[in-house]
Amino acid sequence: MKDETSRSGASRKTATQEQPVRAAQLCGGKVQSIMRDEKKPAIDLSVRTKSFALRVIRLYSALPKSTVAQTLGKQVLRSGTSVGANYREANRSRSRNEFIAKIGDCLKELDETAYWFDLLVESGVLSLPKIRELCGECDELIAILTTISKRTKASPLHHSSFIIHPS
């Protein structure tokens, strides 16, 4: 068994170096704790998802002009920029069920974005260090929105009580 260091710097054992890297290991991995890092200020999710979209746009703009890079880039561009739009729609939902559905759409798009990030790395278009921070943000948004979805489903209250606002 060999030690392998994940994006977060944690070490884990793998059977062989040739073992294929699973999508969850690069960008879609489980986040162990969704507790906010006390060093980071709370940011409104509307602002955060828009910032994520802008970072995805800059990533796409910087990709090589090869067919593979542009094809994968367009996919990540579509999924990565739709998260913020779906989140805005969730905040304007007319019912609890509509809110839950739109948050679910956000999660689907984030998961798809993580998949395209993985393909960009595994195809050799980008190196993991170049998109490590963006993958980390994708993971954090997945964790936050998963918590919002679960809490909303578990509560009989209206969805607005679960919208995270900066403190």
Overall description:
The protein is mainly alpha-helical and 167 residues long. It has a domain of 113 residues: 23S rRNA-intervening sequence (de novo design (two linked rop proteins), Up-down Bundle). It has 5 helices and 2 strands. It has a two-stranded antiparallel sheet with strand order 1-2. Helix 2 runs antiparallel to helix 3. It is elongated, with a radius of gyration of 17 Å. It starts with a strand and ends in a 13-residue tail after the last helix. The N terminus is likely disordered.
The CATH architecture term of the domain at 44-156 is Up-down Bundle
Class of secondary structure makeup: mainly alpha
Instruction: Kindly provide the name of the CATH class of the domain at 44-156.
Output: Mainly Alpha
Count of DSSP strands:
2
Residues in helices, as a percent range:
55-70%
Could you name the CATH topology of the domain at 44-156?
Answer: de novo design (two linked rop proteins)
Low-pLDDT runs of 5+ residues are: 1-38
Oligomer: single chain
Write the CATH homologous superfamily of the domain at 44-156. Answer: 23S rRNA-intervening sequence
Side-by-side strand order of the widest sheet = 1-2
Average pLDDT confidence is: 79
Q: What series of H and E elements makes up the topology?
A: EEHHHHH
- Can you summarize the main beta sheet? 2 strands, antiparallel
As a whole number of angstroms, the C-alpha radius of gyration is 17 Å
Overall form: elongated
Cα distance spanning the termini: 45 Å
Strand content: under 5%
Number of helices: 5
